Amino acid sequence: MANKTSLLPPTPGAAAAIPESGQAAVRVLVSPRARRRARLEERIARALLFLCALLGVLTTFAIVFILLSESLGFFKRVSLVEFLTGTQWAPLFRPQAFGVLPLVMGTLLTTLIAMVVAAPVGLIVAIYLSEYASPRIRRVVKPMLEVLAGIPTVVYGYFALTFVTPLLQRFIPGLEGFNALSAGLVMGIMILPTVASLSEDALYAVPNSLRYASLSLGATRLQTTWGVVVPAAMSGISASFLLGISRAVGETMIVAIAAGQQPNFTFNPLRAVETMTTYIVQIAMGDVPHGTLEYSTIFAVGLLLFAITLGLNLVSEAFRARYKEAKL
Questions:
Q1: How many other β-carbons are positioned within 10 Å of the β-carbon of residue 146?
Q2: Do 268 and 297 form a contact (C-beta atoms < 8 A)?
Q3: Tens digits of per-residue pLDDT, 90-134?
Q4: Domain limits of the chain?
Q5: Is pLDDT at 315 greater than 80 in this prediction?
Q6: Sign (positive/negative) of CA torsion 219, 221, 222, 227?
Q7: Which of 112, 146, 161, 240 lies at a C-alpha separation of 20 to 30 Å from 122?
Q8: What is the pTM of this model?
């Protein structure tokens, strides 16, 4: 009965109880003109949001189209098998060689060294900030870590060349002046704030009820952290690792300065290497004429780099989906 009464039109006394400003606002909101204006604003907002989303999609398709179209001329003259399996990369010299494996090996080697540093150290830092540090320490340490992410990579590159390499040469005989080890170590320091910050956010988002339940069953704080909190946050932690790998794969200045620009097909981190990004910058900023076979190599290498990054994303998504299914 109360619901039916509430649907009846207001009495004159009730209308009089509403202030004049309120009555005017109600009349404006329910007027046909206001409704038409609201619908128009809704359509405009929806169109703008759609255009923003479409811009990102079109940008991705444009990048893929340019890479494919520019690489087509290269692969008409160089076989795909030679490009993917060759161990000699010398497009600017005679005789020419177009085996991209030395560039891929240099990229993977420096990325692996960087993740050996950034993944465990970043996770440990994240666990400390989330589970053990006081709020005061957390407010001080986390911004300091994030400041490291804003340091220009060229500074990291010269830090690796002028400090890390001479330091390592004291302990590692035969270490070349340009080498993958120094570049990878400093690159790990560069992506450490990213891994630590994102992992800490994932750990901090785990509900406290899971922690309390584990502690109430007699588990220690360390057992709770590694047995409950870390597995619950594994999706976010894996995402932070993926972002770190993507940054390492796409890094240019550190490896260009500290790793050298020698496309050696080697597993030895003590030797100089050249990554795919370094080669692209070297050719793009050099004197190689546009439209030549040598210049088109940067699009072929860029296409391969795009495919590797896409593959990493797909593997990460598959891992996260499998982990969610297992948790359910």
A1: 13
A2: no
A3: 888 888 888 999 999 999 999 999 999 999 999 999 999 888 888
A4: 36-79, 89-327
A5: no
A6: positive
A7: 161
A8: 0.80
